[in-house]
Amino acid sequence: MSPAGPVLLTLADVTRVHGSDEVAVHALRGVGLEVRLGELVAVMGASGSGKSTLLNIAGGLDTPTAGSVVLDGTELTGLDQKARAALRRRSVGYVFQDLNLIPALTAVENVSLPRELDGVPLRTARSEAIAALAEVGLDPLADRFPEEMSGGQQQRVAIARALVGPRRLVLADEPTGALDSTTGEDIMRVLRARVDAGAAGLLVTHEPRFAAWADRTVFLRDGVVVDSTGGVHGPESLLAGAGER
Ligand SMILES: Nc1ncnc2c1ncn2[C@@H]1O[C@H](COP(=O)(O)OP(=O)(O)OP(=O)(O)O)[C@@H](O)[C@H]1O
Ligand SMILES: [Mg+2]
Questions:
Q1: Nearest Cα residue to atom 3 of ligand 1
Q2: Domain named ABC transporter: which ranges (predicted)?
Q3: First to last CA, the chain
Q4: C-alpha 179 – ligand 1 centre gap (Å)
Q5: Is the separation of the CB atoms in 157 and 100 below 8 Å?
Q6: Pocket of ligand 1 (CB under 6 A)
Q7: C or N terminus of the chain, fewer CB within 10 Å?
Q8: If one looks up domain 7-239 in CATH, what number appears?
Q9: Residues 100-113: pLDDT tens digits?
């Protein structure tokens, strides 16, 4: 378990209602969550329990109906769309449930795109992208297009894109979904290493063996946090020796 650093992300009493009146869906109801640098938090719960909504709000892709989201000292709900997008590009790496790779770009172009949007010079962005692809074992396929890769390979490209550059919050929505268990473990190792190197991570997964890589797990049911395990402040974690993983 990594020693937890300062708080990077705080969700306080976050509610998200989709639609209104008779068709209103309460995707989140009063969720509170704190994630520190050096901490990987797994989010589990049934389909429709609000996991993706939670990640979207944490990363500034969606805004809560009520409540507050503070990322790296900035209250996201107070920002306009442009400022929120800039903070997101700078600080947040996101692995989407449906990948969202751009079909017309090669693997390395997909990965370097967020850095180019950040204003990083092309050659630097490209070498950072190659390094991120190497982290997930895909640098040999850098010049392939998504349709020329298997589902698992595409997933690893999406993970490289989330890890490229110095992003401090890594949000991963079932990043192991299309992977065999060996590759899944490899991906968890990469996520874990990034978090141990000083990032904060939120990982949605249905699989306990992947959640086991996290420092703690938060369980959602119908938009409410119903349970959590392995809190970094719990007595067990204080008694447990450091650095076993
Ligand atoms: N844009 C939307 N409009 C209306 N309802 C939505 C919208 N997005 C999500 N919902 C609803 O909000 C609830 C939570 O959805 P969410 O996608 O967060 O679930 P999830 O836990 O990620 O599920 P899964 O495991 O299937 O990915 C669901 O009832 C869903 O139907
Ligand atoms: Mg989801």
A1: 18
A2: 9-244
A3: 7
A4: 23
A5: no
A6: 18-19, 25, 27, 45, 47-53, 97
A7: C
A8: 3.40.50.300
A9: 899 999 999 999 99
- The whole-number mean pLDDT for each consecutive block of 10 residues of the chain, a chain of 245 residues, reads 80 94 92 96 96 94 95 92 88 83 95 90 96 93 95 88 90 82 83 92 93 95 89 42 39
Burial of 226 (0-12, 13-18, 19+ CB in 10 A): exposed
- Residue-wise pLDDT for 113-168, tens only, equals 989 988 899 999 999 999 999 988 999 999 999 999 988 889 889 989 998 988 89
The CA distance from 43 to 59, in Å, is: 15
Which ligand lies nearest the alpha carbon of 15? 1
Nearest ligand by distance to the CA of 43: 1
Instruction: Ligand 1 pocket test: pick from 53, 174, 219, 224 the residue with the most ligand atoms within 8 Å of its Cβ.
Output: 53
Q: What's CA 15's distance to the chain center, in Å?
A: 20
Domain boundaries, the chain: 7-239
For 87, the token pair is: 């903070």
* Token pair in block for residue 73: 């000292």
The confidence score (pLDDT) of residue 3 equals 59
Question: Which residues line ion ligand 2, judged by CB < 5 Å?
Answer: 52
